[in-house]
Amino acid sequence: MDESFGTPVTVGTGTRPPVTDTPAPGSGGRPSRYAAVAIPLALLGWSIALVPPLAVTIALRLRELDLDGSAGNLGLVLGVGAFFSFVTNPLAGRLSDRTMSRHGMRKPWILAGAVIGYTGIAIIAYAPDVLFVLAGWSVAQVGLNFALAALVAMLPDQVEPRRRGRVASFISLAQNVGGVGATFLVQLFPIGTLQVLVPSLFGVVLMLGAVAPVKDRVRTKRPTERLDPKALFGSFVFNPRRYPDLGWAWLTRFFLNTTQFTATSYLTYFLIENLDVSDAEAPTMVFQAVLANAVGLLLVTPVLGWLSDKVGRRKPFVIASSLIATAGLVLIALSTSIPMLLLGQLILGAGTGAFFAVELALLTDVLPNEETAGKDLGVANLAQSLPQSIIPVAAPGIIGAFGYPGLFLGGALFGLLGAFSVTRVRKVR
């Protein structure tokens, strides 16, 4: 592994020991200005790597392999892949908390995850049948979620609390703009191997290049807690009675991610089957929809992250964003034309952008212990991966009974639940 993947910063467990080099903010040192840029930039690359198969290329690949069974197969592939995401993310967070590599706690997992994730995407590109697509997406989810857990854990490591709202807003901006960049790259290629491989490769290279110069935290004392089966199981849970604010923040993230993922997971098939878009035109239409979503996001995210830090409040922004996102998804559900769909995406983007501008800052504000930030944020990330498991399982039945509009209206309901759940967080205003 290259030496650039880590500059030693001493950190122990419990009471933090003296440091031997420039410490991360979480270690009591000065903030890293580059890290505040590098983390969003790396997550931009992560998003560009993930979105092409998730939003477009898997759906089109499955239509190539089995046209009649494509909707059911998409649910199967996304559901199983999301299960691996569910399992991997908290484990990766816990492992990165315990890592004693001289290259750092987080970056070795980012590098390994990127390589594994892209290997899975390559399997999808050359898959001869649905089973290989399923295997490839499962491998990709494992790798990319190892990288994601370590990247998100860098936020409390590297950024002081008073600046996290701004950095979190740029993380949200980067991930959503990544969707635009990813779908733009996808529609440049005809349906086939290059369409699967090239956009994700660009994202992986950007992710690794962004984090390479960051001075990662390096653990020099072994963790006191043994990594036994009980501890591994603990990677997936926390005590909501002991940490109620984290519990309600977790639920809020789950509800809003359900709203967001509902809008993206079956968008390709909604365009084809409800708005009479051809398979060849679908990537371009998906790009236009994601672009409209990103425009809404760009209008609000940078301002609200800064404003949240300025006024010292998070909850009002989350409540407003939940209601706006709900309205956007309702409009998408009722769309009878491309312009109406794009307007719905614009409104949805404004809502989810406002939410993600402050929700990561809210989560880091209620963490029980920054020494276990990787593990706790890994558990929080389950709220992001669970909808990806549940929706593909439930979607075929909902679509069969109520069509794609019924699926989207169901997702909108979760936006309302998100507006309620954040009001229960007490520690953060």
UniProtKB/TrEMBL annotation:
What is a single molecular function from GO for this protein? Answer: transmembrane transporter activity
Q: Which UniProt keywords apply?
A: Membrane, Transmembrane, Transmembrane helix
- Chief subcellular location: membrane
Report TM segments: 34-59, 71-88, 109-128, 134-155, 167-190, 196-214, 250-272, 284-305, 317-338, 402-423
Highest taxon listed in the record's lineage: Bacteria
Q: Give start-end positions of Low complexity composition bias.
A: 1-23
The membrane-topology field of this record reads: Multi-pass membrane protein
From the Swiss-Prot or TrEMBL record, state where the protein is found: Cell membrane
Major facilitator superfamily (MFS) profile domain: residues covered: 33-429
Q: Which PROSITE patterns match?
A: MFS, SUGAR_TRANSPORT_1
Region Disordered: list its residue ranges: 1-30
Which CDD domains does the annotation name? MFS (cd06174)
Instruction: Reply yes or no: does the keyword Lyase apply.
Output: no
Q: Name one GO cellular component term.
A: plasma membrane
Protein name, UniProt field? MFS transporter
